[in-house]
């Protein structure tokens, strides 16, 4: 895939979201492929560069450093997708700030925007073969009891022992990630703080 920019929650919020991301259908509906359900950090992909992109990390850092926005992330819905990287995901409200940062970063880097379903945060990655056996729907049904509609959005119960509802977060960093090879081998190259 190449180098990507991720909008990420705080480490505390990320740990809570991982409680949802680590849920599995019980009993398992199928024997899933070893490629389904890899572990990854919760993130919203802001920009993706191809493997052969000549764009340097310093250019990406500069593009992020010039951002003077607070990014309030609000969860809109939980959706089942038709692609491995959008198996089951949180659709995020496209606020003016998120639209502005998306345009800004792509313009600074000099590439056309190619971020399908922007903005969204994947909860799991499930292979197409497992999806054909109903695994994406099974995961969705498993977390359905941990979701609730709130106004125009949705919240998830990310608590371990007690209820802890999360309907969004304030992003404080953008990560530069190298997404080559197996997902669990993806590397975080840098963490750039946002300065509202």
Which CATH class is shown?
A: Alpha Beta
Corresponding CATH superfamily: Cyclic phosphodiesterase
The beta-strand count equals 11
Shape: globular
The oligomeric state of the chains shown is single chain
Mean of pLDDT: 92
Instruction: Write down the domain tally.
Output: 1
What's the CATH architecture name?
Alpha-Beta Complex
Remind me, CATH topology?
Answer: Cyclic Phosphodiesterase, Chain: A
What would you call the structural class? Answer: alpha+beta
Helix residue percentage: 25-40%
InterPro entries: Cyclic-nucl_3Pdiesterase (IPR012386), Cyclic_Pdiesterase (IPR009097)
GO molecular function, one term: 2',3'-cyclic-nucleotide 3'-phosphodiesterase activity
Organism: Armillaria gallica
Protein name: LigT-like protein
Report what the structure shows.
- It is built from five helices and eleven strands.
- It is of the alpha+beta class.
- It has one domain: Alpha-Beta Complex (Cyclic Phosphodiesterase, Chain: A).
- The strands form three sheets. The chain has a four-stranded antiparallel beta sheet with strand order 2-1-10-11, covered by helices on one side. A four-stranded antiparallel beta sheet has the order 5-4-3-9, with helices on one face.
- Strand 10 (173-179) and strand 11 form a beta hairpin.
- Helix 2 (57-65) packs antiparallel against helix 3.
- The protein starts with a strand and ends with a strand.
């Amino acid at each position: 895939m190449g180098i990507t920019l991720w909008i990420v929650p705080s480490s505390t919020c990320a740990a809570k979201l991982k409680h949802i991301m680590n849920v599995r259908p019980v009993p398992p509906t199928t024997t899933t492929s070893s490629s389904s359900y890899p572990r990854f950090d919760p993130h919203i992909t802001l920009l993706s560069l191809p493997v052969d992109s000549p764009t340097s990390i310093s250019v990406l850092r500069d593009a992020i450093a010039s951002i003077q926005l607070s990014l309030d992330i609000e969860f809109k819905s939980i959706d089942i997708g038709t692609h491995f990287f959008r198996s089951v995901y949180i659709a995020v409200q496209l606020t003016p700030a998120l639209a502005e940062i998306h345009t800004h970063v792509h313009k600074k880097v000099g590439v056309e925007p190619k971020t399908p379903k922007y903005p969204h945060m994947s909860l799991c990655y499930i292979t197409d073969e497992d999806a054909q056996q109903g695994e994406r729907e099974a995961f969705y049904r498993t977390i359905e009891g941990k979701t609730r509609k709130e106004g125009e959005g949705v919240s998830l119960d990310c608590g371990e022992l007690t209820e802890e509802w999360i309907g969004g977060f304030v992003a404080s960093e953008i990560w530069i990630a190298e997404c080559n090879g197996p997902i669990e081998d993806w590397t975080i190259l840098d963490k750039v703080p946002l300065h509202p």
